[in-house]
């Protein structure tokens, strides 16, 4: 699970509840008609804006937000280096069995294209085309939540207008003006809250996840083509690290040193 997302939503909601409790009554902020106007309006407008087939994938999109990314850059680079060493020892045809054991479908597809003797330029074109459509699919999910984040405050304002109209009907009764104004403002509160605490941050997290995955795919493409060109595994490793930030390179180096240390200890114990 992605603890950052979960902690952010829970802590944000808790802070608001605590602030409301310290300043007054929580019951004053609970109003079912206001919630129905905001949530129902956002859902209806989103259904109008997007095909139902796109909206049915929202739950799958949310899984991406609440789960950690499945593969790290270090894992990808190590897998590519292992494939490069196999190709260097046994030839490109030996990669077929290894390709079917790969967990990532994108990397598996590229390696099988190489095994089939596909021209390097064609391999690059095929994989970059698939990467472009992957990015397009990601942007659809981002746009859905971005749209919902834009709609929520607008429907909050609509609910406020409805509340003000109902309040103005009771101008002859001053006792009802204050409570009526409070109810009208609650709708705006709901719209702003769910937009800025849920919809817009989720869209932002999806963009971050998309950039991370696209970077890994670019690393894979460069690694595949380097394997096909018969480059030295050490050179391939250094080339792929160039895609990463210094912090990520240090993490890979640290993991590599840790693995080397564990292997050394194992050898000493075996003796």
Description:
By secondary structure, the protein is an all-alpha fold. The protein has two domains: 1-30; 32-260, no CATH class. 82% of the residues lie in helices and 0% in strands. It is elongated and about 90 Å long. The model is unreliable at 263-271 (pLDDT under 50).
Produce the secondary structure layout.
Blueprint: H1 3-23, H2 32-49, H3 52-55, H4 58-66, H5 73-90, H6 95-99, H7 105-115, H8 120-168, H9 177-228, H10 233-241, H11 246-270
Helix pairs in contact: 1-9, 2-8, 2-9, 4-9, 5-9, 5-10, 7-9, 8-9, 9-10
**SSE ordering:** HHHHHHHHHHH
Instruction: Tell how many strands the DSSP assignment holds.
Output: 0
Q: What does the main sheet amount to?
A: none
Class by SSE composition: mainly alpha
Instruction: Give the overall shape.
Output: elongated
What gap, in angstroms, lies between the N and C termini?
41 Å
User: Low-confidence parts, pLDDT < 50 over ≥5 residues?
Assistant: 263-271
Overall tally of domains? 2
Write a brief caption for the model:
The chain has about 270 residues and is an all-alpha fold. The chain has helices at about 5-25, 30-50, 50-55, 60-65, 75-90, 95-100, 105-115, 120-170, 175-230, 235-240, 245-270.
């Amino acid at each position: 699970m992605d603890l950052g997302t979960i902690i952010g939503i829970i802590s944000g909601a808790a802070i608001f509840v605590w602030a409301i409790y310290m300043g007054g009554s929580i019951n004053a902020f609970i109003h079912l008609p206001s919630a129905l106007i905001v949530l129902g309006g956002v859902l209806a407008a989103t259904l109008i804006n997007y095909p139902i087939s796109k909206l049915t994938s929202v739950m799958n999109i949310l899984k991406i937000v609440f789960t950690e990314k499945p593969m790290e850059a270090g894992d990808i680079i190590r897998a590519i280096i292992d494939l490069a060493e196999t190709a260097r020892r046994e030839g490109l045809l030996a990669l077929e069995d290894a390709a079917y054991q790969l967990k990532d479908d994108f990397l598996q597809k590229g390696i099988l294209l190489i095994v089939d003797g596909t021209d390097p330029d064609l391999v690059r074109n095929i994989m970059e085309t698939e990467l472009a459509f992957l990015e397009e699919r990601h942007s659809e999910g981002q746009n859905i939540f971005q749209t919902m984040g834009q709609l929520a405050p607008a429907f909050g304002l609509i609910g406020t207008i409805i509340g003000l109209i109902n309040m103005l009907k009771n101008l002859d009764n001053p006792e009802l003006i204050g409570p009526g104004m409070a109810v009208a403002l609650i709708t705006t509160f709901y719209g702003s809250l769910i937009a800025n605490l849920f919809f817009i941050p989720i869209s932002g997290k999806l963009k971050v996840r998309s950039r991370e995955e696209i970077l890994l795919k670019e690393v894979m493409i460069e690694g595949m083509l380097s394997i096909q060109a018969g480059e030295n595994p050490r050179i391939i490793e250094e080339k792929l690290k160039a895609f990463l930030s210094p912090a990520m390179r240090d993490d890979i180096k640290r993991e590599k040193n840790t693995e080397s240390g564990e292997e050394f200890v194992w050898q000493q114990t075996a003796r």
